[in-house]
């Protein structure tokens, strides 16, 4: 990776973190730690330099970091265009507000549930996804997100898949094996892997890391793309967000409020000085 001003990078990512919505654990939303987001954003920017990049979900707001770091002059490389597809309207609107506020013309977001057919097949060069990790279904939930990534690039190009990576636990190995096998069946191979790279704000597993799994299309792949279909197979949807947690929600809707970026009033109360009581 190229040299960057670390202080400027951390401060820029801090701006992004300040403006992203809180994670919903029931949907396996778990935020990456800030220092690792700085590193990850540089990795993504270099990997997707000059390309059209689709984010299939992005609760971490890595997409925003990548665009913002380039706009601030911290990086002099990065994707030509970034589109975030997420079923959480809070995430979509946070991306749009930040892009508008900072003049990030290369960044946009669209409300989309990965269980529905993908609306823009073949319009991107590469995709990024950090999906629900599939601990309770051997990675089938990961494969649904990866499928949408493949469709976004017309089964021709590259993808970066962020999933759990641990030498001691059993389930991350099963997930990695399943995702690699699924990718191979779709005409992709693992071109490289960056192991145990990211930490998370995860109370019940603070030491669990994730890897970057890079997949690339085989020569001639993508010629038989027939469009996209909704995912309805009950076996693929079983334990999607964890044990006994099949998908029931189409979209997470945002409650509009005028004080974005400020603490909501239901988080605190004021105890007054004696002379003001």
TrEMBL record:
It holds the Pfam family BpsA_C. GO terms for biological process: methylation. It comes from the Bacteria. One of its GO terms (molecular function) is methyltransferase activity. It comes from Xanthobacter flavus. InterPro entries: BpsA_C, SAM-dependent_MTases_sf. Residues 11-167 form the N(4)-bis(aminopropyl)spermidine synthase C-terminal domain. Keywords: Methyltransferase, Transferase. The lineage of its organism: Bacteria, Pseudomonadati, Pseudomonadota, Alphaproteobacteria, Hyphomicrobiales. This is Methyltransferase.
């Amino acid at each position: 990776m190229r040299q960057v001003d670390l202080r400027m990078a951390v401060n820029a990512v801090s701006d992004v973190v300040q403006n992203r919505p809180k994670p919903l654990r029931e949907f396996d939303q778990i935020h990456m730690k800030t220092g690792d987001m700085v590193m990850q954003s540089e990795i993504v920017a270099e990997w997707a330099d000059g390309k059209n990049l689709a984010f299939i979900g992005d609760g971490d707001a890595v997409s925003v970091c990548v665009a913002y770091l380039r706009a601030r002059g911290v990086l002099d490389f990065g994707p030509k265009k970034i589109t975030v597809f997420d079923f959480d309207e809070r995430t979509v609107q946070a991306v749009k507000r930040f892009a508008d506020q900072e003049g990030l013309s290369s960044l946009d977001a669209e409300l989309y549930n990965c269980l529905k057919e993908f609306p823009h097949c073949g319009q991107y060069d590469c995709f990024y996804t950090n999906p629900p990790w599939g601990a309770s279904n051997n990675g089938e939930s990961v494969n649904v997100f990866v499928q949408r990534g493949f469709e976004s690039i017309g089964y021709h190009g590259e993808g970066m898949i962020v999933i759990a990576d641990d030498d001691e636990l059993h389930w991350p190995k099963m997930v990695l094996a399943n995702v690699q096998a699924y990718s191979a069946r779709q005409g992709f191979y693992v071109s490289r892997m960056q192991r145990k790279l990211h930490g998370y704000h995860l109370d019940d597993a603070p030491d669990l890391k994730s890897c970057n799994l890079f997949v690339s299309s085989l020569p001639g792949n993508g010629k038989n793309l027939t469009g996209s279909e909704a995912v309805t197979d009950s076996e693929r949807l079983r334990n999607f967000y964890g044990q006994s947690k099949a998908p029931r929600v189409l979209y997470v809707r945002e409650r509009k409020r005028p004080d974005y970026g400020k603490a909501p009033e239901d988080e605190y109360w004021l105890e007054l000085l004696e002379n003001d009581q």
